[in-house]
């Protein structure tokens, strides 16, 4: 028994980053002190293994992805509007999963027929990890997200134009398209398009589907550029230029209002010009393998016009500004 205790004491040390680290007794080990000695030893080893695995994972060097090896996706391309550095970072990391993103994915999955499943418990712990692994091919929603996605789905099915554009019998939904533009490999997955490529439609969940307010936000977010990019992909895949580009806005709260907007020629042309500018910027960065931020130069600044009111000159909340 003494030898076993000595072995466990030795196991309580681990080499991490070239240094010997002494792990203090964890809660998971302490709670087993009243159990049988053999069970306590096994629990201690299991707890130590988990702690060591976490430590090693945190110390692991990140894998650097060369953007030139990846097909261009619009979800990444749009970041070069800020700077090449933002594009480079977008292809390196998974963006934080927000409630708005989960609601959007859940609504997309339910409306467009992707696998979706509800998980009633808390998204943490062994049960959650096991459920997530078992259903890795599905979009997993909690009860609130499921309710909202179901309500969005029902609202679209009640709207004649929305139902026709997304769920009609002649609609191709979420078809992966691999194509080439300006000599660069690209990949796109439009939400819906007509089988004869006469129209293209993208679904967006939003807080406000008022046409004027939503479209102002849509232009800021580059939705017209996204539709233009998808139209180029469809033309490559089918040989036909979609004549109509639609964006469908559905509110993610009651009463789940639906608005269908059609891009006119000016919006379509502006979107395609934006995509071309971004792509040319990307190709230049890839050729030099240089990914600068906003500027590498020192910027000289002047006072801004604050409408003559000195109280408008500062942000006393000490928070980053939100541009809208």
Give the uncertain stretches in residue-range form. 4-24, 26-32
Count of distinct strands: 11
Instruction: Report how far apart the termini are.
Output: 69 Å
Structural class: alpha+beta
Taking all Cα atoms into account, the compactness measure Rg is 26 Å
Helix content: 40-55%
Name the beta content range: 15-25%
**From the 3D coordinates, which CATH architecture of the domain at 69-96 and 159-288 would you assign?**
Alpha-Beta Complex
Largest sheet: 5 strands, mixed
* Overall pLDDT confidence: 83
* CATH class wording of the domain at 69-96 and 159-288: Alpha Beta
Categorize the overall geometry: globular
Strand order of the largest sheet: 5-8-9-10-11
Which topology of the domain at 69-96 and 159-288 does CATH recognise? Lambda Exonuclease, Chain A
The tally of helices reads: 12
SSE arrangement, N to C: HEEHHHHHEHEHHEEEEEHHEEH
What does this structure look like?
The chain is of the alpha+beta class. The strands form 4 sheets. A 5-stranded mixed beta sheet has the order 5-8-9-10-11, sandwiched between helices. The chain has a two-stranded antiparallel sheet with strand order 1-2. The radius of gyration is 26 Å and the shape is globular. Among the domains are: about 1-50, no CATH class; about 70-95 and about 160-290, Lambda Exonuclease, Chain A (Alpha-Beta Complex). The protein has helices at about 1-10, 25-30, 35-60, 75, 85-90, 100-110, 125-135, 145-160, 160-165, 210-220, 225-240, 265-290; strands at about 15, 20, 115-120, 140, 170-175, 175-180, 185-190, 190-195, 200-205, 245-250, 260. It is built from 12 helices and 11 strands. α6 crosses α8 (about 145-160). A hairpin with a 2-residue loop joins β6 and β7 (about 185-190). The protein is about 45% helix and about 15% strand.
């Amino acid at each position: 028994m003494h030898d076993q205790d000595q072995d466990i004491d030795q196991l309580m040390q681990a080499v991490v980053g070239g240094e010997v680290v002494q792990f203090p007794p964890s809660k998971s080990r302490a709670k087993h002190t009243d159990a049988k000695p053999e069970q306590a030893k096994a629990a201690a080893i299991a707890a130590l293994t988990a702690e060591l695995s976490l430590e090693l994972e945190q110390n692991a060097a990140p894998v650097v992805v060369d953007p030139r090896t990846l097909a261009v996706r619009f979800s990444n391309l749009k970041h070069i509007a800020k700077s090449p550095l933002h594009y480079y970072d977008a292809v390196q990391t998974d963006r934080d999963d927000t409630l708005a993103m989960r609601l959007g994915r859940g609504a997309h999955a339910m409306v467009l027929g992707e696998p979706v499943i509800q998980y009633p418990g808390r998204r943490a712990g062994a049960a959650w990890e096991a459920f997530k692994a078992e259903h890795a091919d599905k979009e997993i929603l909690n009860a609130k997200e499921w309710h909202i996605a179901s309500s969005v789905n029902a609202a679209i099915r009640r709207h004649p134009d929305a139902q026709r554009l997304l769920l009609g019998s002649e609609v191709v939904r979420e078809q992966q398209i691999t194509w080439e533009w300006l000599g660069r490999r690209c990949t796109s997955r439009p939400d819906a398009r007509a089988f004869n490529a006469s129209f293209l439609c993208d679904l967006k969940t939003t807080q406000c589907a008022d046409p004027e307010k939503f479209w102002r936000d849509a232009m800021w977010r580059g939705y017209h550029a996204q539709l233009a990019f998808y139209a180029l992909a469809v033309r490559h895949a089918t040989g036909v230029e979609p004549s109509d580009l639609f964006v469908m806005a559905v509110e993610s709260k009651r009463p789940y209002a639906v608005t269908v907007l059609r891009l006119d020629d000016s919006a379509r042309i502006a979107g395609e010009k934006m995509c071309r500018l971004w792509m040319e910027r990307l190709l230049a960065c890839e050729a030099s393998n240089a990914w600068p931020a906003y500027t590498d130069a020192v910027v000289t600044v002047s006072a801004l016009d604050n409408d003559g009111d000195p109280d408008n000159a500062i942000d006393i909340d000490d928070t980053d500004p939100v541009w809208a």
